[in-house]
Design goal:
single chain, 185 residues, alpha/beta, Arc Repressor Mutant, subunit A, D-Maltodextrin-Binding Protein, domain 2, 3-stranded parallel sheet, two-stranded antiparallel sheet, 43% helix, 14% strand
Protein backbone atom coordinates (compact mmCIF):
# COMPACT_ATOMS: atom_id res chain seq x y z
CA UNK A 1 0.00 0.00 0.00
CA UNK A 2 1.53 3.29 -1.11
CA UNK A 3 1.02 6.70 0.47
CA UNK A 4 0.07 8.10 -2.94
CA UNK A 5 -2.75 5.56 -3.24
CA UNK A 6 -3.95 6.42 0.26
CA UNK A 7 -4.02 10.10 -0.73
CA UNK A 8 -6.14 9.13 -3.75
CA UNK A 9 -8.48 7.15 -1.50
CA UNK A 10 -8.85 10.04 0.97
CA UNK A 11 -9.67 12.46 -1.86
CA UNK A 12 -12.42 10.17 -3.20
CA UNK A 13 -13.73 9.56 0.33
CA UNK A 14 -13.91 13.30 1.06
CA UNK A 15 -15.38 14.28 -2.30
CA UNK A 16 -17.65 11.21 -2.55
CA UNK A 17 -17.25 11.53 -6.30
CA UNK A 18 -14.47 10.17 -8.52
CA UNK A 19 -14.65 13.06 -11.00
CA UNK A 20 -14.31 15.78 -8.35
CA UNK A 21 -11.54 13.82 -6.63
CA UNK A 22 -9.67 13.52 -9.93
CA UNK A 23 -9.90 17.30 -10.46
CA UNK A 24 -8.69 17.89 -6.91
CA UNK A 25 -5.74 15.53 -7.49
CA UNK A 26 -4.92 17.09 -10.88
CA UNK A 27 -5.32 13.80 -12.71
CA UNK A 28 -7.79 12.12 -15.01
CA UNK A 29 -10.50 9.87 -13.65
CA UNK A 30 -9.57 6.50 -15.24
CA UNK A 31 -6.19 6.11 -13.48
CA UNK A 32 -7.80 7.21 -10.21
CA UNK A 33 -10.52 4.58 -10.58
CA UNK A 34 -7.91 1.92 -11.41
CA UNK A 35 -5.84 2.87 -8.35
CA UNK A 36 -8.88 2.57 -6.06
CA UNK A 37 -9.87 -0.78 -7.59
CA UNK A 38 -6.29 -2.02 -7.08
CA UNK A 39 -6.40 -0.84 -3.45
CA UNK A 40 -9.68 -2.68 -2.92
CA UNK A 41 -8.13 -5.81 -4.42
CA UNK A 42 -5.02 -5.45 -2.26
CA UNK A 43 -7.11 -5.04 0.89
CA UNK A 44 -9.70 -7.63 -0.09
CA UNK A 45 -12.52 -5.23 0.73
CA UNK A 46 -14.95 -3.00 -1.13
CA UNK A 47 -14.28 0.56 0.05
CA UNK A 48 -17.06 2.41 -1.79
CA UNK A 49 -20.66 1.78 -2.79
CA UNK A 50 -20.73 3.14 -6.35
CA UNK A 51 -23.86 4.62 -7.93
CA UNK A 52 -24.49 6.77 -10.97
CA UNK A 53 -24.75 9.86 -8.75
CA UNK A 54 -21.60 9.31 -6.70
CA UNK A 55 -20.13 7.06 -4.06
CA UNK A 56 -20.54 6.37 -0.36
CA UNK A 57 -18.13 4.72 2.01
CA UNK A 58 -18.62 1.13 3.10
CA UNK A 59 -17.90 0.15 6.69
CA UNK A 60 -14.42 -0.97 5.57
CA UNK A 61 -13.98 2.33 3.74
CA UNK A 62 -14.82 4.31 6.89
CA UNK A 63 -12.20 2.38 8.86
CA UNK A 64 -9.61 2.94 6.13
CA UNK A 65 -10.43 6.66 5.97
CA UNK A 66 -9.67 7.11 9.68
CA UNK A 67 -6.49 5.06 9.44
CA UNK A 68 -5.34 6.66 6.18
CA UNK A 69 -5.75 10.18 7.55
CA UNK A 70 -3.73 9.29 10.64
CA UNK A 71 -1.02 7.59 8.55
CA UNK A 72 -0.79 10.47 6.07
CA UNK A 73 -0.59 13.01 8.91
CA UNK A 74 2.22 10.97 10.44
CA UNK A 75 4.04 10.74 7.10
CA UNK A 76 3.79 14.52 6.70
CA UNK A 77 5.22 15.05 10.18
CA UNK A 78 8.09 12.66 9.43
CA UNK A 79 8.89 14.50 6.21
CA UNK A 80 8.87 17.86 7.99
CA UNK A 81 11.03 16.64 10.88
CA UNK A 82 13.61 15.10 8.54
CA UNK A 83 13.70 18.27 6.44
CA UNK A 84 14.21 20.36 9.57
CA UNK A 85 16.97 18.05 10.81
CA UNK A 86 18.64 18.37 7.42
CA UNK A 87 18.56 22.15 7.74
CA UNK A 88 15.73 22.85 5.35
CA UNK A 89 13.03 25.29 6.39
CA UNK A 90 9.52 23.88 6.33
CA UNK A 91 6.10 25.47 6.50
CA UNK A 92 2.96 23.39 6.85
CA UNK A 93 -0.23 25.28 6.04
CA UNK A 94 -3.57 23.89 7.16
CA UNK A 95 -6.64 24.75 5.13
CA UNK A 96 -10.31 23.90 5.22
CA UNK A 97 -11.36 22.16 2.05
CA UNK A 98 -9.55 22.12 -1.23
CA UNK A 99 -5.78 22.63 -1.59
CA UNK A 100 -6.42 23.45 -5.23
CA UNK A 101 -8.19 26.66 -4.14
CA UNK A 102 -6.62 29.40 -6.30
CA UNK A 103 -6.01 31.69 -3.29
CA UNK A 104 -4.19 28.93 -1.39
CA UNK A 105 -2.10 28.01 -4.43
CA UNK A 106 -1.29 31.71 -4.98
CA UNK A 107 -0.19 32.18 -1.37
CA UNK A 108 1.93 29.03 -1.34
CA UNK A 109 3.59 30.03 -4.63
CA UNK A 110 4.33 33.53 -3.29
CA UNK A 111 5.92 32.08 -0.16
CA UNK A 112 8.04 29.69 -2.25
CA UNK A 113 9.24 32.59 -4.42
CA UNK A 114 10.29 34.57 -1.33
CA UNK A 115 11.80 31.52 0.37
CA UNK A 116 13.03 29.23 -2.43
CA UNK A 117 14.74 26.77 -0.08
CA UNK A 118 11.68 26.26 2.09
CA UNK A 119 9.42 23.27 1.73
CA UNK A 120 5.73 24.27 1.76
CA UNK A 121 3.20 21.58 2.52
CA UNK A 122 -0.57 22.03 2.37
CA UNK A 123 -2.66 19.95 4.78
CA UNK A 124 -6.38 19.78 4.02
CA UNK A 125 -8.96 19.32 6.75
CA UNK A 126 -12.70 19.57 7.11
CA UNK A 127 -14.98 21.28 9.62
CA UNK A 128 -14.37 18.54 12.20
CA UNK A 129 -11.17 20.47 13.00
CA UNK A 130 -11.60 24.12 12.03
CA UNK A 131 -8.10 24.96 13.36
CA UNK A 132 -6.78 22.64 10.62
CA UNK A 133 -4.47 20.86 13.05
CA UNK A 134 -3.00 24.02 14.62
CA UNK A 135 -4.03 23.09 18.19
CA UNK A 136 -2.63 19.58 17.66
CA UNK A 137 0.68 20.91 16.32
CA UNK A 138 0.18 19.38 12.87
CA UNK A 139 0.52 22.71 11.02
CA UNK A 140 2.43 25.95 11.42
CA UNK A 141 -0.33 28.24 10.19
CA UNK A 142 -3.99 27.71 9.32
CA UNK A 143 -6.17 29.42 6.75
CA UNK A 144 -9.64 28.79 8.12
CA UNK A 145 -12.94 30.30 9.10
CA UNK A 146 -14.79 30.52 12.40
CA UNK A 147 -16.10 29.53 14.66
CA UNK A 148 -13.20 27.81 16.44
CA UNK A 149 -11.56 27.90 19.87
CA UNK A 150 -8.95 30.70 19.69
CA UNK A 151 -7.33 29.76 23.02
CA UNK A 152 -3.55 29.87 22.62
CA UNK A 153 -3.76 31.14 19.04
CA UNK A 154 -3.07 34.48 17.41
CA UNK A 155 -5.55 35.28 14.68
CA UNK A 156 -5.50 37.75 11.81
CA UNK A 157 -8.45 38.38 9.52
CA UNK A 158 -7.34 38.18 5.89
CA UNK A 159 -10.73 38.74 4.30
CA UNK A 160 -14.41 38.75 5.14
CA UNK A 161 -16.50 36.62 2.85
CA UNK A 162 -20.12 37.63 2.33
CA UNK A 163 -22.70 35.25 3.71
CA UNK A 164 -26.05 34.80 2.02
CA UNK A 165 -29.32 33.10 2.69
CA UNK A 166 -31.28 31.11 0.13
CA UNK A 167 -35.04 31.32 0.47
CA UNK A 168 -37.96 29.84 -1.43
CA UNK A 169 -39.55 32.35 -3.78
CA UNK A 170 -42.80 32.27 -1.76
CA UNK A 171 -41.06 32.95 1.58
CA UNK A 172 -42.23 36.26 3.13
CA UNK A 173 -38.59 37.42 3.44
CA UNK A 174 -37.66 36.58 -0.16
CA UNK A 175 -38.38 40.05 -1.52
CA UNK A 176 -36.16 41.85 0.99
CA UNK A 177 -32.85 43.33 -0.20
CA UNK A 178 -31.10 42.46 3.05
CA UNK A 179 -31.77 40.41 6.17
CA UNK A 180 -30.36 40.29 9.67
CA UNK A 181 -29.56 37.03 11.46
CA UNK A 182 -32.38 37.80 13.92
CA UNK A 183 -34.89 37.99 11.05
CA UNK A 184 -33.77 34.58 9.82
CA UNK A 185 -34.20 33.08 13.29
Amino acid sequence: MELRTLRYFVAVAEELHFGRAAVRLHMSQPPLSRAIRALETELGATLFHRTSTGVTLTAAGSVLLDEARALLDRADRVRARVATAAGAATLTVGILGDSADPDVVRLADAYRRRHPHAEVTIRETDLTDPTCGLHAGLVDVALTRGPFDPTGLTTHTLRADPVGALLRADDPLAGRASLSPAELA
